[in-house]
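step: validate -> pass
step: tokenize input -> pass
step: predict -> running
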Amino acid sequence: ATQRGGAVYYVAPTEYSAFVANDVVFTGNVADSRGGGVYAVGPFRITAGTFVGNAAGQGGALSVRSTGGWNSQDQDPQDRELTDVTLHQNTAMDKGGALYLNSGGALRCTNCSLGFGAANDNTPDDVFATETLAETNYTDGISFDCWVNPNTLAVGCPDL
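step: predict -> pass
step: emit ->
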């Protein structure tokens, strides 16, 4: 296993870079620390993707982190998008079975499927945003924006 990003470790070299993936499947990947499937720092777009059976300490399927300030778009969910993505049966040893947003991270999910049923659940939760929000009631076909303010750690994620 790798430390971060079991399948993909992406750190944007500049604010004009982006990781783009279409029609992808991430399954059975493992990271010791964060992002069993994907660890992303900076803008990305994943469309028509599937994350199933990935595992990590935090963010079993995907871990999103702030760039640390050089990218003014860190807080803009539209620069980190999941569209028509399925996240089922992913596991985090600590937090964020499907998605883990670190301080300053942001994410937009459009028509995402996060299980909500024993056979498809992510463990221990679906979405974990910094230290203040863990959600387990996300369901299939959901769309939402999520962000974490790096200064106040205020969280803007739907409470479903």
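step: describe -> The longest strand covers residues 106-112.
step: cleanup -> pass
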